[in-house]
Amino acid sequence: MKELDTLLSLLAEKKRKMEQEEAERNMQILLDFLHCLRKQKVDELKEVQTDLQFIKEDIGAVEKHRMDLYRARDRYSVKLRMLDDSGGRKSWHSSMDKNSSGLASSPLNIRGGLSSGSHTKKNDGKSQISSHGHGIQRRDPISGSDSQYINQSGLALVRKKRVHTQFNDLQECYLQKRRQAADKPHGQQERDTNFISREGYSGGLDDFQSVLTTFTRYSRLRVIAEIRHGDIFHSANIVSSIEFDRDDDLFATAGVSRRIKVFDFSAVVNEPTDAHCPVVEMTTRSKLSCLSWNKYAKNQIASSDYEGIVTVWDVTTRKSLMEYEEHEKRAWSVDFSRTDPSMLVSGSDDCKVKVWCTNQEASVLNIDMKANICCVKYNPGSGNYIAVGSADHHIHYYDLRNISRPVHVFSGHKKAVSYVKFLSNDELASASTDSTLRLWDVKQNVPVRTFRGHANEKNFVGLTVSSEYIACGSETNEVFVYHKEISKPLTWHRFSSPDMDDAEDEAGSYFISAVCWKSDRPTILTANSQGTIKVLVLAA
């Protein structure tokens, strides 16, 4: 019994010790958690306080700038009123002088006596009324400005609603730009200080104001011209590519109809008719997948087709200058270099990227990849770099001076990458059949943003970019426009099918197949699988 009591006391002591250690561990874990949570919240608080300081500074800068604008407007209004009043007095005195001289010289007034006097008073009354009338007319510009102010107020209200609709994205954009500006090196901050002293804005605020202005400027797409040259009962109408030439004077279309059609843009927009005829038409042997105008030689355009042939055409003579037949399967994409007009690149289902020179019959470079190539694009700032979109879900960014391996492989898409386009030398946009667009920084080799809103699961629906906006098609027969800083659509436009009784039911069977911005204008060319081409313009 004594031995058992000893064992029991030892076990009890051990139990108490284990409970003590367990309690200490639990307390330590809890304490570590609370310390981590406090650190996180303190960091968040510091970030919020910093953000609040940024906001406070920017509110002060904007209020000051707004007051300066108001004062400038008031000064301008006073000057206009003074000029208006002095001009009104001169016109009133001159009219009175004319009336008095008329009274003195008119023999009818002398003979007319009282009746003519009363007639004169009536005339005076009329002249005074007309004079006051002129005064009212002089104030019309002010009342006009009032009505204009009302219109501007309504427009401002609409733009405010757009801001609140995308408030979270805009908030993230503002804070990101403001923090980036604050994190710049000292030398850069000094340059920004000069900017601040000149404008009253920080660099980050100025960048964000530019985003806010361009984002809220437009709310819809308006049709300004339309070409209906397709047969709705014939399936071979898909416009695979639509591209402006070097000067935006002409645009070309190509697709499964085996024809390259070149249209005069001004004629299409200014002549109100659906049946626009192309100024140039070239027939090809095979269905076409892509077009690319030469950025220097205005008369040259390249095409890729379903047989794998890459052709360079002379639009003036309507004949081919070069035909490259090295691809073994369908060629999906072709692109002329912006910096070297003699170089072009193509990509094919044979998993090969080929670089061509218009002075040579054979390819000058060949990149053998493991997956089908859906799209290729030269960097606009350098003829040494190309982006390649592939069926392996990745974007391969190559330096053509060393093709043994890509400079970087951008990953993120869940399906094949159907298009790649450069917004600038450092910004690359991509489209995929995973129903997303993505923006990448090819200088830092990082993803920037993902855009969602359109539907794209199996077709090539087009992609086009400007410096601020990205547009693409959708398998819902709609064109979507995104601002590059906001992940949700800015606006969209649905293609209708007025030739069909059950347009709503049939619209689902068509999709947007090609889009193209007009340089940095708010004008966009769009085409769909029915063969309809529309010229759309962004509107408020």
Question: Mind explaining what this structure looks like?
Answer:
There is one protein chain. With 540 residues, this protein is of the alpha+beta class. It has a domain at 225-539: YVTN repeat-like/Quinoprotein amine dehydrogenase (Methylamine Dehydrogenase, Chain H). The protein is 40% helix and 31% strand. The chain is built from 7 helices and 28 strands. The protein has helices at residues 2-105, 107-165, 167-182, 186-199, 203-216, 265-270, 503-507, and strands spanning 220-228, 239-244, 250-255, 259-264, 280-283, 288-293, 300-305, 310-314, 319-324, 331-336, 343-348, 352-357, 365-368, 373-379, 382-390, 395-399, 408-410, 417-422, 427-432, 436-441, 446-452, 463-465, 469-473, 478-483, 489-494, 512-517, 523-528, 532-539. Strands 1-28-27-26 form a 4-stranded antiparallel beta sheet. Strands 2-3-4-5 form a 4-stranded antiparallel beta sheet. Helix 1 runs antiparallel to helix 2 (107-165) and helix 3 packs antiparallel against helix 5 (203-216). This is E3 ubiquitin-protein ligase COP1. InterPro entries: COP1, WD40/YVTN_repeat-like_dom_sf, WD40_PAC1, WD40_repeat_CS, WD40_repeat_dom_sf, WD40_rpt. It is found in: Nucleus. One of its GO terms (molecular function) is ubiquitin protein ligase activity.
